[in-house]
Prior knowledge:
Elements: H1 10-13, E1 22-24, H2 27-36, E2 40-45, H3 50-60, H4 63-72, E3 74-79, H5 84-98, E4 105-109, E5 115-119, H6 133-146, H7 148-162, H8 179-191, H9 209-222, H10 225-240, E6 254-255, E7 263-264, E8 267-268, H11 269-286, H12 289-305, E9 316-317, E10 320-321, E11 324-325, H13 333-340, H14 350-357, H15 378-384, H16 389-407, E12 415-416, E13 419-420, H17 421-438, H18 441-458, E14 466-470, E15 473-477, H19 480-497, H20 500-516, H21 550-565, H22 568-578, H23 582-587, H24 593-604, E16 607-612, H25 618-628, E17 635-640, E18 666-671, E19 674-675, H26 682-689
Parallel strand pairs: 1-3, 2-3, 16-17
Antiparallel strand pairs: 2-4, 4-5, 6-7, 8-9, 9-12, 10-11, 13-14, 14-15, 16-18, 18-19
Helix pairs in contact: 4-6, 8-9, 9-10, 9-11, 9-24, 11-12, 11-17, 13-14, 14-16, 15-16, 17-18, 17-19, 18-19, 19-20, 19-21, 21-22, 21-24, 25-26
Amino acid sequence: MNRLQHETSPYLLQHKDNPVDWYAWGEEAFSQSKAQNKPILLSVGYSACHWCHVMAHESFEDPETAEMMNRLFINVKVDREERPDIDDIYMQAVMAMRRSGGWPMTVFLFPDGRPFYGGTYYPREPRYGMPSFMQVMDAVYDAYVNRHDELSEQADNLTSSLDRAFLRLDDVSDDGFSETLLEAGAKGLLADFDEINGGFGGAPKFPNPMNLAYLLRFAHHTQRDDALSAVSFSLQKMAHGGIYDHVGGGFHRYAVDEVWLVPHFEKMLYDNAQLSRLYAQAYRATGNEAFKRVACDIYDYVLREMTAPEGGFYSATDADSEGEEGKFFVWTIDELEASLASLSATLPNASEIAIEYFSMSRGGNFEGTNILNIPTEPSVVAKRLSMPLEELESAIQQIKDRLYATRTNRPFPLLDDKVITSWNGMMLASLAEGARLLNRPDYLGAAERGGDFFLNDIMASDGRLFRTSKNEVHKGNAYLEDYANLIDAFLELYQSTFLGKWFVAAQKLAEFVLAHFLAETQDGFFDTSNDHEQLIVRPRSLQDNAVPSGNSMMSKQLLRLFALTGNPTYEEVARNALRPLLPAMQQYPQAFGEALNAVDMLVRGAYEVALIGNPTQAPTKALLAVLHEGYYPNAVVALARESIQDSEKEPIALLHHRPQKDGQPTAYVCRHFICANPTTSPAELESLLRV
Length: 691
């Protein structure tokens, strides 16, 4: 075994038996590169990456290829999920060189870390116009030896272009923070909306939960039916497609086609965190019970299959099992009939129902097998089968339960069981909010358990976080996205429990971010802290990718903290971080959904709701029910059991000096700390939230 045997990352451990003399990223690799005057071959991927596996099997497990790698290069393997900073820097370099990127990523570096050539997947043998990996290595090494000075100059120029210490944007005034921008963002997203299949654009098709969340928020504020219809239609199409796991719950990463049928079968925690939250919010915005069922199915899947003993959540499951992509998830009709035979006594036509409902055939829809999907509305299927819809739904639930039991006997896809702070923050925030919106105390219990793990094990007394945890080993400096998403989780936990420890923790994390991540130019945040390992540049991601931009997510959380505390620094920093993005948001809203969500709160203002009453008693519960049973995207809620006279003991300024009205539980609805008349009436509270 090579050096990777000492790592905790499941992705790195996948390569511990390679004949390649792998190094993990660190001083040892760079020292050897300098001492031996060999360039570094940097390979970046992640455990659930299908093409990473392909390149590993073709090249990294091949003795001849490994011999060439070891002879010519110092080889460094990086898990992009552990080190998003390294991934971001060198992915930007590859994009600059090749105008495209992806994983596995292969980059060649000088011993000081400057990149001079790179790409993605290289095949073992030349094909499809692509050179073989060995041909690439031979050419790269030859250039390193014989064109060293020329390459060094190119690497200098490339590295300089990656430096984002100064955004180099034209001055943008606060006039851009307007409803005109919000309208332009929605218009741009709707222009890309697929009216036939839902979602945005063509194949491959990603769920894009941040953009759908923005349209849902926009529809709420403007009563625009086209925006709400786009969200509802997209959520329905995704939930009926093969991208959704109809047997076990949860969404796959993306669909390779435009109709959501054939997924890339990996499942990522961050997708399911964002989508569960979106479906729960859409349920409250529309009243559509189908959205509630999908949200619950995702939560149940995560709690059943993706939850660590200590309460955190695992990162991902692979697309492959038994060496085949998707084998765990697909069915032949013979497999289906064998599985459902046990239902013959209670549901004798189970196979007929399943075949019709999930549109199955002997030939299949994916390499001779069937990806389960629902191309026809269940009400139409019920008519075809001459069944009442309620009876069909009951039968389908029995069928799913039986298929799930059968599937548990198959070899499972590889589980990436590391716990990533930012992705866990997304999941905890979703669970905590979902518990309120879906009236599920069990979800809140799971969120509190996970929150306590991060509060007690991952967060230091000064607010510093670790990036990952696995087998009780916590490692890595956390990144901006880790802090921003965990603040979100702690604020959602506070609004679901009204326990002060969650608010105190959120504020402590925010203060740490302001001290260690804020750019000297006061125009946003870096991805890494000011005491992080020094890399060739300090990375700064401003647009959304598969996860929200840390810059935008942090801005939104600061605006929520401002609504609770009245601290003007929070609002000023958020405004300064969002201001440089205003032109990009208007021109390309598809990449700035989370920024638009933050700007929406900045432009329209938060609804600051202070409740004074005992949350265990019926009158206060009735006021809380108004908030939990509606969709109020800009509401920020705080609660005190009694009026707070000594403000020094309460960090939430929104709660200061709020007496009860007539001795009854009372709600105050405020905008910028200017409050409407207090009310004890749930109906009046609802009307105030709709102004």
